[in-house]
Amino acid sequence: MLAHAFTPAWQQTHPGGATVFGREKFVAWFAAEYAASGEWLNTATWPEWEEPASQIRTAYVATESWRTAHPNAFADASRASALVAWLASPASPLSEALRAWCAKFDPSILGAELAKPGVNVIGHFCYPSGLRVSVESLVTALGLNEVATSLRDIRTDAKDDPCHADFHGLESHDITVVHVQPEPLLDTAYERADLFERLPRPYRIGYWYWEFDSIPDSWVTHAQKVDEVWAATEFVARGLRERLSVPVRTLFPGVQLAPYARRGKSHFGLSEKPYTFLFVFHMMSVMERKNPLGLIRAFKSAFGEDEGVRLVLKTSFGDRHPEQFEVLKKAAVGGNIVLINEVYTPDNLLSLMDACDAYVSLHRSEGLGLTMAEAMLMGKPVIATNFSGNVDFMDESNSLPVSYKLVKLGQAIPPYDADLEWAEPSVEHAAQLMRRVYDDQDWARELGARAKESAETNLSLQSAGRKIRHRLEEIKAMRGKSQAE
Prior knowledge:
Elements: H1 2-5, H2 8-13, H3 23-34, H4 52-62, H5 64-69, H6 77-87, H7 96-103, H8 107-115, E1 118-123, H9 130-144, E2 148-153, E3 175-179, H10 182-185, H11 189-192, E4 203-207, H12 217-222, E5 228-231, H13 234-243, E6 248-250, E7 275-280, H14 287-290, H15 292-302, E8 309-315, H16 322-331, E9 337-341, H17 346-355, E10 358-361, H18 370-377, E11 382-385, E12 400-402, E13 404-408, E14 421-425, H19 427-439, H20 441-458, H21 461-484
Helix pairs in contact: 4-8, 6-8, 9-21, 15-19, 18-20
């Protein structure tokens, strides 16, 4: 059954093979195809692989006679209840044993479950990155609003957490969110998820992040493979709307701090006493965009080596960008700057943020600014460039925005073109703000408290999930109307 979930060819020929409705036929084929034998092929001893509602959804997609007898069966609870009652009746095409299985359930209760909004989500559930945090937040927000989900992980490389097999849902719902960047993984998302691409395909939504107000030409082509696009912030959505003919919605995934242990600075090899500024970034996310070199200049301008202040730069995958990492190491020499190049668990990463005193990002552009949001939720004073995705939730009332000027890149920095514009944050202004935070730490703590209150109100998963559920219900109604016509 697990092999079926991760073998697209089996899913194609036996789409309901892991359900009670399709496993007899599947196991007969399997035994003949692979000359298999033994008691383990007796499906009566097999466990329930999915919840009853999920099995019925999957079998409904796989069985034309069901769809003919009960078109648009999940449009509402009454239609779904009628399907369940029909499956348990002598009028259904099922065997006596399968009718008995269906008869175990109250049609009204199971029908209500089947009619709930639901969505398939394909994304980076095991890749240690901001994209992983985003898709996990999205799914949690949906769950808080009683939206059913069927989940698949997209493999990236050997450094992924070993949890790919935990995400074995099929495309059992009529809407799929592909939470992956169009470049370079949209074309291979199903292959990397070990998932057969259901045909006819569900309504497909791309959840895309970008760091500029204009998008690459190739994204216009990729948009032909989706029915609409969601963006986390209005900054990203504006650039998408200018170029794409499909609908573009701003639907924030919500932010919630994952569980983490509170640990002191010494746990990370740091002395406890110095006041500590932190910046977290990923070498795979384009170092020029994250701008740690600008932050180093600002920090060295603000503080002397003899002062009790420290800057921690937490990065990862430095080995994949050795030349840039060497430049970063040289820039960090002196000035009480600590560089950590290690892949941390989410627990350790949040613990490090909690142990530090303030957060600072002199990014040139961000699609969202997740680490800034997390620091605000912890009640940290946050200093950040007043540009791009983070301005959706940061302003002078809850943080310290850094002034900037827009500049062209001037040269291609893959995947970004030379003519694109991003922010050049003021090193002088950033240095002044860091100095102020250090010199007036009581005031900085008050600012952090306001940041926490603001983030808890505006970035909650419950609120985000409510908006996403509303859009899913709109799509379901739109598709139901189209099918009726």
